[in-house]
Amino acid sequence: MHRDEAIARLAETQHGFFTRSQAFGIGFTVDQVRHRLNTGRWRSAHPGVYRIRGWTPAFRDLAFAAHLAVGERSFISGRTAARLWDVAPFADVEILEVLVTDRRRVRVSGVIVHRPRVVPRSDVTKLGIVPITTASRTLIDCVPFLPADQLEEALDSLLRRGLASPGALARRLSTASPLGRLAAARRQDRPTESALELELLRLIEKSGLPEPVRQFVVAGVGRVDFAYPAAKLAIEVDGYAYHSSRVRFDADHERDLRLREVGWTPLRFTATQIRRGPDETVRRIMTQLATNLRG
After folding, report:
1. Which residue, of 162, 170, 191, 233, has the fewest CB within 10 Å?
2. Cβ(98)–Cβ(74) below 8 Å
3. What residues contact 13, with CB distance under 8 A and at least 6 apart?
4. Is-contact 47 93, C-beta < 8 A?
5. How far is residue 167 from each of residues 35, 71, 139, 159, measured CA to CA in Å?
């Protein structure tokens, strides 16, 4: 196989990038490497890390290139890892952060290199071929960059997808820390199923209403978003994407009928109602809760 074809195939398996050492391993000489860089056939991403002309890298590709530049025993971490784990508050970050697990002093322009004293093996993994800190470790590292509401949303996002365990987080964090308190609370409760549910929950908390039970299972019907079991009041949140089809509408209508048949009162709220009419949303919950409790 021709060397250029071989390096192109290698790059395809490595998010479009390859190292000088890998090029030498395929058989390129120093002069051949220099020639390809000078003529623009190869482009330099970092010292000793290249891509072939015509490849337009996505963010994950750039993250992998940063790992190649820092070298072995390095892992994508921090806000970069949070974006790769699809943690919503970090969806648009462009920062490249890499953690190294040895004592090397590495400097790479444009890359933040972290050197923690201890990195348990359980804190690192791979996302595809990208070496990366686990979702749990990533969230812990990102706490300083998250206000309280976004921290809760980020935690619930990981819990919903099974990428973090509230028990494991609670065991390694003090309950005096914001994330430790949230993790301890989630051990006793279920995470919200969406950011919109979290918005409604915060609205309820601010109103002074008692906190409902999250993800409560009503016998004979199934799980509802929130519930006041003593009052047999079920609250559901309908995001547009979830509720935008006729099939979904009919299914929700049938579900509400089943709730009423077993003695429960259903309340449904859309994103528009929650965000544009928060006072009316709270009033409806408060009124229905009082009515049901009076019996």
Report:
1. 162
2. yes
3. 129
4. no
5. 55, 33, 15, 11
User: Domain total for the chain?
Assistant: 3
Q: Which two tokens stand for residue 284?
A: 């409806």
Q: Which residue has the tokens 């995470």?
A: 191
* Whether residue 26 sits in one domain with residue 13: yes
Domain end: 160, 190, 220, which one?
A: 190
148 vs 168: CA distance, rounded Å: 20
Give the structural domain span for 137.
58-190
Paired tokens of 135: 């979702």
Strand boundaries in the chain, DSSP class E: 17-19, 42-46, 49-52, 74-76, 97-100, 112-114, 124-127, 130-133, 213-218, 222-228, 233-238, 265-270
pLDDT in tens, the chain (295 residues): 599 999 999 999 999 999 999 999 999 999 999 999 999 999 999 999 999 998 889 999 999 999 999 998 999 999 999 999 999 889 999 999 999 998 778 899 999 999 998 899 999 999 999 999 999 999 999 999 998 878 988 998 898 888 998 888 988 998 889 999 888 887 766 666 677 888 898 899 899 999 999 889 999 899 899 999 999 999 998 864 444 444 455 677 788 999 999 999 999 998 888 888 999 999 999 999 999 998 7
Same domain, 186 and 232: no
pTM greater than the 0.70 cutoff: no
Contact 153, 88 (CB under 8 A): yes
Residue the block writes with tokens 């994407």: 241
Q: Are residues 260 and 217 in the same domain?
A: yes
